[in-house]
TrEMBL record:
Family: Belongs to the metallo-dependent hydrolases superfamily. Hydantoinase/dihydropyrimidinase family.
Domain Amidohydrolase-related, residue spans: 49-433
Residues annotated with N6-carboxylysine modification: 144
Entry keyword Calcium: no
InterPro entries xrefs: Amidohydro-rel, Hydantoinase/dihydroPyrase, Metal-dep_hydrolase_composite, Metal_Hydrolase, Metallo-dep_Hydrolases_sf
Species of provenance: Facklamia hominis CCUG 36813
Protein name: Dihydropyrimidinase
NCBIfam families in the record: D-hydantoinase
Pfam family, one: Amidohydro_1
GO MF, any single term: metal ion binding
Post-translational changes noted in the entry: Carbamylation allows a single lysine to coordinate two divalent metal cations.
Length: 468
């Protein structure tokens, strides 16, 4: 006996059609018109859309002083069935050892959605170069570098990024890079403090769009010189998108994503009174309105491949964490919660407003995230044999986003007060019902690790070009 979802409209990145979907043994068994009911349990999805479960390619479950996997069920409630975290390297240990420790001690038995990891470099010794050849067999196919955050373990100098790229390309590993000019940010921060700026807007003033545009272009040059595909995380500016598009037009394998808040929150939020602006302090900084439209255009036209959440929910939230910077914006911890409402926001602000369509929604929030993480089509697809991660979406729901409905653990919601049109009506993780209409109904801690494959989609044009 299986679970049969009838009468819904199935949506992929390229098509939309009415069909039934049969789940057996945690997998999608069949998609066809009029599958007989037999002895299956039947779910009627008339008037609803059927999407693959959401895949969030960019979450932080732990570092940045954020909540870990104990709050990861928030993703399920919002319709996201797989999250891909960045496993932080422990100082003095290898990326590979740190990844295993994070997976086995922080995630296993605690994670609620299924999960996978990117490696994350946080110790800048050249020992990194020796372990890259062993990463893929261990489950690391994307390797994160930060050009920003000077003076912290996150920062990596260009020369090490470049040397790593020269090796990554031989193993099908894609460098994922946070592009901001960390040196300039430090200079601008000092200047702002000297000029008496204390409020959260100082964060934007010391991380303006140009520090991102410059670092994105520099990274593109480094990648060209190293002849290595790259993926640029959380692009937020018109200039960054233009730089990526220009490289793509020249045939260079440069890819990237943006994140929900960079499409929906502008600098006016940072200027809210009573220190409220601190809620939206994150890196890169939130941008002025005109950049938001440029980034929407980039996700629509394919310059950017995905929309992640960059979920980093500070332990202590606004009152106990963000307020550490009440007299000094440089002390406000970075990060915004966002994995629960990613799909709600992208649907309401994107699909409902005509900026993207339903197929784009699946491309940007499910399929491409799975592809760039090397876990497609096990995840991110409604295909026979794929994991039965199925999101039934009711487009007729109308409500308002609020911390009151939030499972993210913080005392505020990044998207508080935004309208919500549409809701994750039923969320199945490998065929098990986990969430219904904004409530968790399944058991926590049932998430399983998904091992990624190297040579992700970021390598496909690269190899075709080489073969020509
Ligand atoms: N900036 C990052 O680079 N990562 C997570 C949180 C943030 O604000
Ligand atoms: Zn980042
Ligand atoms: Zn991040």
């Amino acid at each position: 006996m299986g679970l049969l979802i009838k009468n819904g409209t199935i949506v992929s990145s390229t098509a939309e059609y009415q069909a039934d979907l049969l789940i057996e043994d945690e997998k999608i068994k069949e998609i066809a018109v009029n599958i007989p009911e037999g002895d299956h349990e039947v779910v009627d999805a008339a008037g609803k859309y059927i999407f693959p479960g959401g895949v969030d390619e960019h979450v932080h479950m732990g570092p940045f002083d954020s909540y870990g996997f104990e709050t990861s069920h928030a993703a399920l409630v919002g319709g996201t069935t797989t999250i891909v975290d960045f496993a932080p390297q422990d100082q003095g240990d290898t990326v590979i050892n740190s990844f295993h420790r994070h997976k086995d001690e922080k995630a296993k038995g605690i994670a609620s959605p299924d999960f996978s990891f990117h490696g994350m470099v946080m110790d800048t010794s050249e020992a990194l170069l020796d372990e890259i050849p062993k990463m893929v067999e261990n489950g690391i196919v994307n390797l994160k570098f930060f050009m920003a955050y000077n003076g912290t373990p996150f920062h990596v100098e260009d020369d090490l990024i470049f040397k790593a790229m020269q090796i990554c390309k031989d193993y099908g590993i894609t460098p994922w890079v946070h592009c901001e000019n960390g040196d300039m940010i430090e200079v601008l921060k000092e200047e702002a403090v000297k000029n008496g700026v204390t409020k959260p807007i100082g964060h934007y003033l010391s991380s303006p769009p140009t520090v991102e545009d410059e670092a994105v272009q520099r990274l593109i040059y480094l990648a060209k010189l190293a002849d290595c595909p790259v993926f640029i995380v959380h692009n937020t500016t018109e200039g960054a998108c233009e730089n990526i598009k220009r490289a793509q037009d020249q045939g260079q394998p440069v890819y990237g994503e943006t994140c929900t808040h960079y499409l929906t929150i502008d600098t006016s939020f940072l200027e809210k009174e009573n220190f409220e602006g601190a809620k939206w302090v994150c890196g890169p900084a939130i941008r002025p309105k005109e950049h938001l439209e440029a980034v929407w255009k980039a996700v629509k036209d394919g310059t950017l491949m995905g929309i992640g959440s960059d979920h980093a929910a500070c332990v202590g939230g606004f009152e106990k964490a963000k307020k550490r910077g009440i007299d000094d914006f440089t002390k406000i911890p970075n990060g915004v919660p966002g994995m629960q409402d990613r799909l709600n926001m992208v649907w309401t602000q994107g699909v409902e407003k005509g900026r993207i369509n339903r197929q784009d929604f699946v491309r940007l929030c499910m399929e491409n995230p799975a592809k760039v993480c090397g876990i497609y089509p096990q995840k991110g697809a409604l295909l026979p044999g794929s994991d039965a991660d199925v999101l039934i979406w009711d487009p007729n729901y109308e409500g308002t986003i609020s911390v009151e409905n939030s499972y993210e653990g913080t005392d505020y919601n990044t998207f508080e007060g935004f309208p919500q049109k549409g809701i994750a009506d039923k969320v199945f993780l490998r065929g098990h019902l986990m969430a219904e209409r904004g409530k968790l109904v399944g058991e926590k801690g049932q998430g399983q690790y998904v091992k990624p494959q190297p040579y992700t989609v970021c390598y496909s044009n690269y190899h075709q070009k080489k073969a020509e």
